[in-house]
Design goal:
The chain is α/β, with parallel strands linked by helices and 282 residues long. The protein is 23% helix and 26% strand. Strand 3, helix 2 and strand 4 form a beta-alpha-beta unit. The radius of gyration is 18 Å and the shape is globular.
Length: 282
């Protein structure tokens, strides 16, 4: 499995897998087929998936959410399309939800911006608490309702003093804004992981304060595409200036993600490694 051989020895650390934007049925299908073997082969303890494009390429429905959960996803994050599918509202508002929308949306919006969950208890290790946070960038983004993500991050981190492991999905367009967030939260969270552009970057690192960082985790779906959409309709729209429906592509499926190993005692990242799994290459 591509990139698996590059994973470091796990030791006593906790291994978290963050998977990039799932696009449409194609993304859901490849994820449900392949996630169990990826988890097993990579010894993954906890899986976070950004699924804000998982239903028809825009938003997440309750049915799609349930598909991801059955596939072995522990927590689902959203982004600028978080509230496109009304069927997810009841799950967002449920007390035991495992799906979160950006925390810097208005407080009146359905759902919440972070969640505290636990890993499964095993013979080797008792359950460990993990906080997953979702925030929305503002540079080049069209959501005028989002508050300053740095200030929102401060407020959330202050509430998590008893949770060592903290994972942030920062859904942002500009790599510079994601870098700002990484440096701003370095040492206060376990990882700052970018989503939204659907293009995996190659800048994974552990910052000086111990936070893992990657500007964009990438995409899950068709890679014979333009960020998961059929090539012809996207090119034609840009050539003519005429609006078109950007249909979800279905060929050459793959999964982008990132593994982050975290010391449960300190919440500091020990290792970070990208996942670039192409189904047709297996």
């Amino acid at each position: 499995m591509k990139n698996m051989t590059q994973l470091p020895q796990k030791g006593d650390s906790l291994r978290i897998l963050m998977i990039g934007d799932v696009v449409g049925r194609a993304g859901r299908d490849v994820l449900t087929r392949r996630l169990p073997e990826i988890k097993r082969n990579a010894l993954v303890d906890f899986v976070v998936v950004n699924a804000e494009n998982a239903t028809g390429g825009s938003g997440l429905s309750s049915d799609s959410y349930n598909v991801l959960r059955r596939a072995g996803v522990d927590c689902v994050t959203l982004g600028d399309h978080a509230l496109r599918q009304k069927s997810i509202f009841s799950i967002l508002n449920s007390a035991d939800t495992r799906v979160i929308r950006p925390a810097n949306l208005p407080p009146e919006a359905p759902g919440k911006g972070y969640v505290i969950l636990e890993t499964e208890s095993t013979f080797e290790r008792p359950a460990v608490k993990i906080a997953v946070i979702s925030l929305l960038g503002r540079v080049f983004m069209t959501n005028q309702f989002a508050d300053n993500p740095l200030i929102a991050a401060d407020k959330i981190v202050e509430r998590l003093h008893d949770v060592k492991i903290r994972i942030l999905d920062f859904h942002a367009e500009a790599t510079s804004e994601t870098q700002i967030m990484g440096r701003y939260l370095d040492g206060r969270v376990s990882a700052v992981l970018g989503t939204h552009t659907h293009v995996q970057t190659a800048d994974e690192k552990i910052l000086p304060g111990g936070s893992a960082f990657l500007c964009d985790v990438g995409m899950t779906g068709s890679f014979d595409s333009i960020i998961g959409r059929k090539i012809d309709c996207v090119v034609d729209s840009f050539r003519t200036g005429c609006p078109k429906t950007f249909e979800v592509a279905e060929k050459n499926l793959g999964i982008n993600g990132v593994f982050v190993d975290v010391d449960p005692a300190t919440g500091k990242a020990c290792a970070v490694s990208r996942l670039n799994f192409m189904e047709d290459e297996q």
